[in-house]
Amino acid sequence: MADDMTQTSVQTVAASAEHIEYVMRLGDNALILGQRLSEWCGHAPVIEEDLALANMALDLVGQARLLLTHAGNLEGKGRDEDQMAFLRVERDYRNVTMMEVPNEDFGRTTVRNFLYSAFQILLWQKLATSSDTELAAIAAKSLKEARYHFNHSAEWVIRLGDGTEVSHAKTQAALDYLWPYTAELFAANPTDEAVSAAGIGPAWGELEAEWEAMVLPVFVQATLVVPARTPFKTFGKFGRHSEHMGHLLAVMQHMQRTYPGAQW
Amino acid sequence: MYTQSLSIPDGDAKGPRKVENPDYLAEFNAKIDAGSFIEPKDWMPEAYRKTLVRQISQHAHSEIVGMLPEGNWITRAPSLKRKAILLAKVQDEGGHGLYLYAAAETLGVSRDELTEALLSGKAKYSSIFNYPTLNWADIGVIGWLVDGAAIMNQIPLCKCSYGPYARAMVRVCKEESFHQRQGYDLLLHMMRGTDEQRAMVQDAVDRWWFPSIMMFGPHDKDSVHTDSARWGIKRISNDDLRQKFVDATVKQAEVLGVGLPDPDLKWNEARGHYDFGVIDWDEFWNVVGGHGQCNVDRLAARNKAWEDGAWVREAAIAHAEKMDKRERQVA
Question: Inter-chain contact B83–A61, Cβ cutoff 8 Å?
Fold first, then answer.
């Protein structure tokens, strides 16, 4: 369906199910967070942030296109980026749950971008030397984007945390809400183990300590308190999502579901 | 996205016209006559300044409000490629708004004052954005017709007498021209598709055609006389621009294979132009006057974004002040 994406990576050896799954997780994270950020367009607190949020959404949609195309190629069933993005059932989306929770307000949106872009920087750095050369190329491109997202959101986390009583309270509430969802990023699982063993990419859990070293000092500067870990668990990357996901998909898939097979 | 080809009065208080210094006025008029740009530091008549503030800010407001009807389809775009194109386009419009507010600020008004005038309903914006976007083809038709009409209006503004506005228009026109081609490309793809897709395009064209040609403003014979032409702000009349647009668009519609909803639209050999039917000016003035389908919703959306974002803007200011204070303490 996508008419301008060439098949850049033709795998000569069939990719493992874990390899495909791993790339789909990356693609779906970008897709779903891009979808959420695009909801802001025209509704941000100032025009400059309208531009910035649209810019980040565009980066993520661009990453999703490359990653889902690559996942489709690895899978070898002829699914292109749009079939991957729009024509799966909810259970088959592999994004972590934090990506799909509603934007709520500028505070939650900013804290989520901050938490996730820090993680992305570490992940893309490692993936830039992946044995999957297509993935390595996507990682090199995405790393630059993630650095911008991180710098932009970190500055805002500090402004909002340090700003006024109201902004501090709202941003603290956002951090309290989102922090438990970050556990899912690092939870050990067989996909990560297999991919790590094959030299394709890191198990995400390996990145946790470095990630904390990136985010915690910013929260200190923002005078925000990181909550203690709780038993809260989510399972989006295994396809068990939140109640929010179905609504997001209903909107995102609307055209493709209503007009099956149409070219756009 | 564009400025309406009439600068609609915003309801400014009407007062006695200021008597200007005749020497300054003569120098100003000489610059206009010589086709030179007027720059922010140059002396200018108060009425010239006011006209520009009104026109540039209406244009900026139109860009910002114009993000809403198209933004309505970003989350439902039918492919990732189209989603990316639409996001980039709406982002461009925000950029135009920012650029134009900055141009208006060179005339001694603040962005906050202008925003306040929009949110309170005192300032006008382009009436075209008070029509709803009802199907995906609306996104293509807005690019093709609405941006197409905008370009017709704006190209002459690239040579308008006020330097910052003229320079802003050069950049804006380049991007609008890109948007128009993207809109047309979207429609070409849909016209090559299924019957349902072609029906969507026709439906969208049927709804947007007359509002698009209304964008050029009332007929010249009905236009309020202003000094804009003498000042080099408006260089081509509403009817001439509208005719140029119709003449260019009819052929594009033929290539697309879509009908234009006007039985009186036909080539006039004697005039060397297309004739077209009567425009419903009651509809136009109703929408300008606040009674379009989306006037209330558009302003409500802008007000909500502004109110919801107040704590964010306040936080940014408070943090900057704290940083400033801390730096001074260290020093």
Answer: yes
Q: Does residue B144 contact residue B184 with C-beta atoms inside 8 Å?
A: yes
Q: Which residues contact B283 (CB under 8 A, 6 or more apart)?
A: B210, B214
ipTM summary value? 0.94
Low-confidence ranges of chain A (pLDDT < 70): 1-13
Q: Flag if A47 and B64 touch (Cβ within 8 Å).
A: yes
CB contact (8 A) between residue A45 and residue B84: no
Q: Say if CB A42 and CB B90 are below 8 A apart.
A: yes
**Tens of pLDDT, residues B272-311:** 999 999 999 999 999 999 999 999 999 999 999 999 999 9
What's this model's pTM, rounded to 2 decimal places? 0.94
- pLDDT band at residue B323 under the 50/70/90 scheme: very high
Which residues in chain A (160-189) have CB-CB distances under 8 A to chain B?
160, 162-164, 166-167, 170
Provide the pLDDT for residue B20. 83
**B6: pLDDT strictly greater than 50:** no
Torsion of Cα atoms, B118 then B119 then B121 then B126, to 10°: 40
A16: which DSSP letter? Answer: P
Kindly list the distances between the CA atom of residue A8 and the CA atoms of A70, A134, A197, B204, in Å, as whole numbers in the listed order.
Answer: 8, 8, 25, 37
What is the distance between the alpha carbons of residues B12 and B50, in angstroms, rounded to a whole number? 10
SS3 assignment, position A180: helix
Interface test with B, best of A38, A79, A109, A244 (most B CBs within 10 A): A38
Query: Inter-chain contact B77–A255, Cβ cutoff 8 Å?
Result: yes
CATH classification (class only), A15-258? mainly alpha
- Using a CB–CB cutoff of 8 Å, tell me whether A15 touches chain B: no
Selecting from A45, A50, A86 the residue whose C-beta is nearest the C-beta of B94 gives A50
Q: Is the pLDDT of residue B227 over 90?
A: no
Residues of chain A with Cβ-Cβ distance to B316 below 8 Å are 159, 163
Instruction: Parse chain A into domains and list their residue ranges.
Output: 15-258
